[in-house]
Amino acid sequence: MNPMPEEDILINITPQETRVALVAHAAVQELHIERSLERGLVGNVYLGKVVRVLPGMQSAFIDIGLDRTGFLHVADLWQRQSIPVIPADASGTDAAPAPAPAPLPIEKLIYEGQTLMVQVLKDPINTKGARLTTQISLAGRMLVHLPQDDHIGISQKIDGVDLRIALRERMTALLSEHDPQASQGFIVRTNAEDASDAELAEDIAYLRKTWRAVQQRAHEVGPPALIYQELSLAQRVLRDLVSDATRSVQIDSRENFDLLQAFAAEYMPRVSGRLRLYRGERPLFETANVDEEIERALGRRVDLKSGGYLIVDQTEAMTTIDVNTGGFVGARNFDDTIYRTNLEATQAIARQLRLRNLGGIIIIDFIDMHSSQHRAAVLDELRKALARDKVKVTVSGFSQLGLVELTRKRTRDSLAHMLMEPCPTCGGLGQVKTARTVCYEILREILREAKQFNPREFRIVANADVIDLFLEEESRHLASLSDFIGKPVSLQVEPAFSQQQYDIVLT
Could you tell me the pTM of the whole model? Predict the structure, then answer.
């Protein structure tokens, strides 16, 4: 008998943002956030009208119904090229391949007033319109559909020639089974590396159905018109996150619940029966303490149940995770305490990577273990915990310094980058200069300016803590400087200044 599913997906929707939490084992495992103002146009497909062709720039401007026309370069204009034939010479050996025909100039391909189906490559920026292409691609969970092409591509990030060949053969067989007359253009993404045939077939069916809907919409409307919008976060959740382990998908908005039900019924019927409209009096996220988890996920310290803790520091180049015993003293000896703390930390680390969506290089500093058996067991436990991650993770063994290095594929901005910004006072350092350090900087600056200028008075404008220090402990140094330069120095508090900010006014 199969065990009961363990996951629940909570979708909190407001006009300004959508938040999604995946809850398993009574704890939040993943968080996804999308804000309406930050949702771009990339991936959207429009029926546009050519308003101007510029042969000198080999580009055209396309009206797609936005404030500014979109920009289409000839390199982004789909041109079907015939495959060059390689003729054999009289001796039977192959001659050099004939060169591919040069692409036609843009003025030979499109004309003003023409209707074109285009897709947004880059969002509009300032005065520039959206960058467009006529080479349509539709992204699925594991595949990308190229409806205008007829070849199967494999992501270059999938390692191993044999694996790439096997994936191409599987895709060829699946495509021949399911509507062989339809377009065969697909790219296999990296997360399809371990996918089953059923999962690939489901993605193929979803993408082909989506393309048929795009084509039908294009025949029903006139330009300019939006004919396909990149899926919202809630729709992507149904496509990408719902699995056999999902017990329910709870949505706290009636309007969006109806929309998601219609979307699921049309494109992924297996998900429909798990959708639930949340009607509780408490906010949906409060039922699983999601907001508290978000606050904790934005902090450096992560407490473990045993009394130990993690320190998570995210930098530009990498993320470091330091494991500490804290108040955990163990039941037997110190080596046992270290081992048990490290074992517990593996589960917490795997969860924090998903929760914070940390990507790139991650360095873990486990507490030093003298036993090679303990190190092997901790590494094995870490790999097991990371195996549940939907994002590809590669783990190296312990280095000579006792550090474990792993890499996790970047899929989107980390939680901290999405919800936070560098402190305007410390610039992200996490530290500021002391008031005394700032005092001495000011004294040196006044001395430099006194050699260049001859004002009537120097006025120091600074934070209250800096001014207080000048009035008390540093008053003797300030008086000595005033006597040395022969000019009075006055003080003024500026409440809006941070401790590191100051100004020297010459009057």
Answer: 0.74
